[in-house]
Design goal:
The protein is mainly beta. It is built from 5 helices and 36 strands. Helices cover 6% and strands 39% of the residues.
């Protein structure tokens, strides 16, 4: 019992200090060279250009799909990804970091880049200097269906890579490349994000995989394995076919989830369970149809109806939504829509000729919300200074984030990053993932052999049912016997895939690894 108490205290203290990590304190924000915004406790963040590789044959192109991660202790940049390539901190292609996509889409843009929102994401793989890099893509066989105006243009693959920063003199190398998590699965080109599990060290990766019905697929990402897919189906909203823009986001406490997309006049809001990764209490709200006309509109739209970004205020009270030409604040707990919606910016923040369109949104480490540019050629972007305030008091700040005029680079948008500072939810005990300190100190329940791939024996005095659970607590098998057969069936198909499982007898639990 003393061992259990000590472990619980140490884990609680670890979770308490964990939010001090600085994995999100430097942002890659542009194209051509590598401009970064460095959040060092002052406003505005400082700006530096780490490298200009235009003359080395692979200029940077970070337009909407890019992500990056920093050293947790110092906040210095470790590496970046634009969904096509991975660059090290010196601005050079990382070892084995090229060609993260099938050939046809890889050669679509020069230099290779993926110009849709949230196309890549980086998560730590434990604390040993390894990282997962997730990218969405389209197979060559489906590629010809893309880039047709007003025709549904889905992606059909979700891949992951592993970067080891202990290699190549600390510059890192890709050690696992182009592994498939989802294949032949229709998914929108945008909308991939993650939230830390309530246990404080694992992650939930969420990807929009359906247009209508509204399908959201999740994976449990641990240091050892990736579990899933697990898909939830919601009838509404029907997102429509236009998926060139869109974003999903979590509140700062990880308890709320919001999603918008393209031409849909809806916003999807749900509660998020950081233990199970499930969405619940779904709500769909109408977004005001703006009457702002656009100069020289192309035939498929007249009014400003293209949704681009969504973001919660730091206090979770408000949701900010961007369209090409307008920015709204939505107080989601107010039932009267006439009071809930406030337009905080009407029309471009510069002349129509030079306006880059409002893009997706991200909370900065300094408490401000940063607004991306949809277009590539601007030295600056706008900011919301006081996002916890109602209406115009939120402080929309025109062009308040600016790169030096002397740099050969432009602001595109903030990188796609989860909230790396979110720690454990100490108000919840998640079974079994939140109970590792209990699993390893149980003396009255014995499981052997462990690991195993055939039979597992159970030794206990308890008369309770013997239950087998998977890693996210789903019951797979119940018996009163003291032996469970894990072998393949007569057709040679294994009953259970390799990974971590749990055997529960009464109130006692043991972890078991199936090989």
């Amino acid at each position: 019992m003393k061992k259990l108490i000590v472990l619980s205290i140490l884990i609680s203290l670890t979770y308490h200090v964990f939010p001090q990590n600085k994995m999100g304190n430097t942002w890659a924000v542009g194209i051509y060279t590598m401009p970064v915004a460095i959040f060092n406790g002052v406003q505005p963040p400082s700006v530096a250009v780490l490298k200009n590789n235009a003359n080395l044959g692979y200029p940077f192109n970070f337009v909407h799909s890019h992500s990056n991660i920093c050293d947790s202790a110092t906040g210095s940049l470790l590496f970046t990804c634009n969904a096509m390539r991975i660059y090290d901190t010196s601005g050079v292609l990382m070892q084995n970091g090229d060609s993260l996509q099938p050939l046809k889409i890889y050669t679509q843009n020069n230099p290779p880049s993926q110009p849709v929102t949230q196309g890549s994401l980086i998560l730590p793989k434990g604390s040993n200097g390894e990282y997962y890099v997730f990218v969405t893509t389209v197979s060559d066989s489906l590629y010809n269906a893309l880039w047709v105006p007003d025709i549904k243009t889905p992606f059909d693959e979700l891949r992951y890579n592993v970067v080891n920063m202990n290699l190549n003199g600390g510059l890192g190398a890709v050690t696992i490349k182009n592994k498939t998590l989802l294949k032949n699965t229709e998914m929108v080109r945008t909308k991939m994000q993650a939230c830390r599990h309530a246990n404080g060290y694992d992650w939930w990766l969420l990807k929009q995989t359906g247009y209508g019905p509204n399908n959201v697929t999740r994976f449990l990402v641990t240091k050892d394995s990736i579990y899933g897919p697990f898909t939830q189906n919601f009838q509404l909203p029907d997102w429509g076919q236009y998926d060139a823009t869109g974003q999903i986001t979590f509140s700062k406490d990880g308890k709320k989830f919001a999603s918008i997309q393209g031409k849909s006049q809806k916003i999807f809001l749900a509660d998020f369970d950081r233990c199970s990764g499930e969405l619940s209490n779904p709500q769909v709200f109408n977004v005001p149809l703006d009457s702002t006309t656009i100069p020289n509109p192309v035939p498929w739209y007249i009014y400003d109806s293209i949704n681009t970004g969504v973001c919660f205020s730091p206090n979770g009270k408000y949701i900010y939504l961007t369209r090409w030409y307008n920015i709204y604040q939505f107080e989601h707990q107010i039932m009267d829509s006439s009071l809930a919606w406030v337009r905080i910016q009407h029309g471009p923040d510069t002349t129509y000729q030079k306006f880059q369109y409002f893009g997706h949104l991200y909370n900065g480490p300094d408490g401000r919300i940063y607004i991306g540019n949809m277009g590539p050629n601007a030295k600056e972007s706008s900011v919301i200074n006081f996002p916890n305030n109602k209406g115009l008091a939120s402080g929309f700040c025109r062009k308040c984030f600016r790169l030096p005029d002397s740099t050969f680079t432009y602001v595109s948008s903030p990188p796609n990053m989860p909230d790396y500072t979110l720690g454990a939810d100490l108000s919840k005990v998640c079974w079994p993932l939140g109970s590792n300190e209990i699993l390893e100190t149980c003396d009255r329940l014995e499981i052997y052999p462990n690991p195993t791939s055939t039979l597992v024996n159970i030794k206990t005095e308890s008369k309770a049912n013997r239950q087998l659970f998977n890693s996210i607590g789903q019951l797979l098998f119940t018996t009163t016997e003291n032996q469970i057969n894990l072998s393949a069936d007569k057709a040679g198909v294994s009953k259970y895939s390799s990974g971590i499982y749990y055997i529960k007898v009464g109130n006692e639990v043991r972890k078991i690894i199936i090989e």
